[in-house]
Automatic annotation (TrEMBL):
PANTHER family reported in the protein's UniProt record: CYCLIC DI-AMP RECEPTOR A (PTHR38456:SF1)
Gene3D superfamilies the record matches: 3.30.70.120
Signal peptide start and end residues: none
InterPro entries linked to this entry: CdAMP_rec, N-reg_PII-like_a/b, N-reg_PII/ATP_PRibTrfase_C
Matches recorded under Pfam families: CdAMP_rec
Protein's name according to its UniProt entry: Nitrogen regulatory protein P-II
Organism: Bombilactobacillus mellifer
Transmembrane segments: none
Amino acid sequence: MKLVIAIIQDQDRLKLAKALRQAEFQFTRLATTGGFLKHGNATFLLAVKDEQLDQLLEIIKAHSQTRTEYLPPAVASTLLDQMPTQPIEVTVNGATIFIVPIEKMIKF
Ligand code: 2BA
């Protein structure tokens, strides 16, 4: 079994949750915040059998979208060590996914 930790953009959380339910995946959804942009994002936790992994990744890929953000110089200067002269372009991936082995899963 694997634990899939998927960080996706807030705008995609509802459609991804719906698709996961339709495919009968169990999941936990956390409201999280990106350390750089300090925007809300969503983190999904899913424990799945190894043979379900490809299907799960396809669903996440199909329901998460890469977007470009433009940070005004004044906002960017609070995140970086310098004051840029132009807005900073930031590409936010549709999903950042960590896959880790599960030694044991227990429910009481
Ligand atoms: P944030 O930390 O808010 O980062 C949003 C986007 O800002 C990132 O998109 C990246 O394009 C950019 N970015 C992050 N740190 C930067 C820096 N020091 N300098 C310049 N640009 C920077 P993604 O890489 O697609 O990440 C989207 C979200 O996924 C992140 O939101 C964070 O919540 C999570 N994430 C990404 N990589 C991670 C990692 N290695 N560990 C834990 N969480 C991660």
